């Protein structure tokens, strides 16, 4: 009788060992790494970029470090790729250089590749956005087919021949607050009790000039381009924030704990890697105390790497010492600017029509192939035949651009999907080759539609926020070190090239808005008329009218006197 329990225990132990053992070429079942990049900016501000990376065997369905909520959501809705970003503030690329993350458009940006086609994929997409809305306490449930675009070229670097279509939903009015940060931190294995997440102080993080928080989930694929049995599931959480030490009363010498208002905690116990990296641009004379054991060069800049897994590093704070206070805004011109920049604004006036003008700048000394992607809501009816593309030679300034002295540029490829009223937005993708040192201007017109009074957002007289345009291009690592996310595999295409994305500004579209106070005025006027009418009729019905003899009354008064 004792043999059966022993056999069951042995079988369970063997199954557990086989489940925990990694397969050939797969690596550990689950891994977790955390990293903080501190980069002083030329104008005196400081960039903090937190990154928490997970990796797990996709065939395993039990969870230890990997966030269970997101793993089950990806499995339930057939997600092959998912990107979510909440951004507040504009990244000033002319002062700060390349952005730290791939998504820096203001608002909430959701992109996903979902298995299936047609109505099934649409239902899965709606379920995914509703699930993410509940997890991150955001208004992502307002993403539906009417504000979802299906770009074909702008995000095609990770797509293989059998990859499902990419869907992108955007909420430009979405704000970022601590309600989004709290569930974001809860996805981490140590949360904010230890590790680098202990530095996430909401009071300092939201007293900022730029804030971007997001996550990316990617399912690994085999060499044939299809998901394999031993594919890995990669999940990354990142948070980028730009702080100004001068507004906190910090001078030319301050520590990391003074900057964020929280002490530097020991590494997360379950983290395989926990590092703090100080990236010193060449135009800034920066000293670090204490000096770390590892010093290297990264993207042409000095890098100091602190390993928080070492007990000596975890017990000490990290101080940054500047040779001179960075108070000059002109020092920002010394930083290396991205090769491509884009700016977009609305043209025209009145409530019936308008236009879009986007200026793409090529600062590089070579021609660059780019993809311009713009999606406008259905109530801005774009006329694709009005698209005009002109390029201006080197040395062009704003006066030359406005004078009309330009060369017409023809796109190498163009994809345009017209909008459907209350059904889907329009999507325009244009592949161009930008000449070196040039300004390229895209212009196209649209008509403004009429909305029902129930479709207007709050404060509709302010205008309608329109999502930014996106320019994608491949970074030449020999000439441009590229953005920080190019150092990770998630920022590279299947060919190994880094794909950089530049987001334009939002713009406000003024539409004809009804007088929302008119119902109140009508109700008030009607109630006043009814009250007056009711009072008169009520008096007529309830009063008893009698005829008085005025002469008889007068004679009675005379006799009495």
Characterize the structure shown.
Residues 1-20 form the signal peptide. The chain crosses the membrane at residues 518-538. It comes from Coemansia erecta. One of its GO terms (cellular component) is GPI-anchor transamidase complex. InterPro entries: PIG-T. The structure is a single chain. With 561 residues, the chain is an alpha+beta fold. It has 3 domains: 29-334, no CATH class; 340-509, Immunoglobulin-like (Sandwich); 521-560. Helices cover 20% and strands 33% of the residues. It has 11 helices and 26 strands. Strands 5-6-4-3-7-8-2-1-10-13-12 form an 11-stranded mixed sheet, with helices on one face. Strands 15-16-22-18-19 form a 5-stranded antiparallel sheet, with no helix packed on it. A 5-stranded antiparallel sheet has the order 20-21-17-24-25, with no helix packed on it. Strand 1 (30-40) and strand 2 form a beta hairpin. Helix 2 (68-76) packs antiparallel against helix 4 (118-136). The longest helix is centred in the C-terminal third of the chain and has 25 residues, at 518-542. The chain is globular and about 125 Å long.
